[in-house]
Design a protein that fits this description.
By secondary structure, this protein is an alpha+beta fold. It contains three helices and twelve strands. It is elongated. The chain starts with 8 loop residues before the first strand and ends in a 21-residue tail after the last helix.
């Protein structure tokens, strides 16, 4: 019956042909890749980036890393694929490399963009919240004014008014939209009672 012999290694080379269980690691990082049985011919060494030393048992959020110089495994943080957040910009970032989390990043998700890192967690920043709210409202006002101007242009109310071609109903519609635009312009972006005016009805094409 054929049996698989385990060779003895002398000076890093096999003294005979045989099979060994090797543990492979990444060439660049030393991170554990996997274990497999390998055939070793007499006078040859182990496959590249492999060792006979078994890695430590699996630990969540950790990975075994082999040090070829010391011939030892060490458990290193492995957050690859995790979403973390920049403590200054609050921007999300996906971890792509093994190792400890840099000091400028945190795994704690911010509740919203209007926060600052206070050393222990996220703290609300009213100045950021006000700035964001102001920008959003300014963009909203611009969009509504552009929409109103488009309605006026499509219906040619200004041209018809100058030519005396507006009937009473059209005049009322024109005035409604002008008043609506005026109300939008008067909105104070930082007001606590910021409320959009009611939009007039869209005129029929007939």
């Amino acid at each position: 019956m054929n049996t698989k012999e385990t060779p003895v290694f002398v000076g890093g080379f096999a003294a005979s042909d045989g099979y060994v269980n090797v543990h492979s690691y990444d060439k660049k990082t030393g991170a554990f890749v996997g274990s497999h049985e390998a055939h070793v011919a007499k006078g040859t060494g182990l496959p590249a980036q492999s060792t006979l030393i078994a890695p430590p048992d699996f630990v969540p959020a950790k990975i075994a890393v082999f040090n070829a110089d010391s011939q030892e495994w060490a458990m290193v943080d492995d957050l690859r694929g995790s979403v973390v957040y920049h403590k200054e910009t609050v921007a999300p970032h996906v971890i792509e490399e093994i190792g400890s989390l840099p000091d400028h990043l945190t795994t704690v998700q911010p509740p919203n963009p209007h926060v600052d890192w206070d050393g222990e967690g996220w703290a609300h920043n009213e100045e950021k919240a006000t700035l964001t709210r102001t920008r959003e409202r300014e963009a909203e006002k611009c969009a509504l004014l552009s929409e109103a101007e488009a309605v006026i242009q499509i219906n040619h109310w200004s041209d018809k008014l100058h030519l005396g071609l507006l009937d009473n109903e059209q005049k009322l519609q024109f005035i409604e939209w002008l008043n609506y635009m005026d109300a939008i312009r008067k909105l104070k972006l930082n007001a606590d009672d910021y409320t959009l005016p009611t939009k007039p009805g869209i005129p029929n094409d007939d």
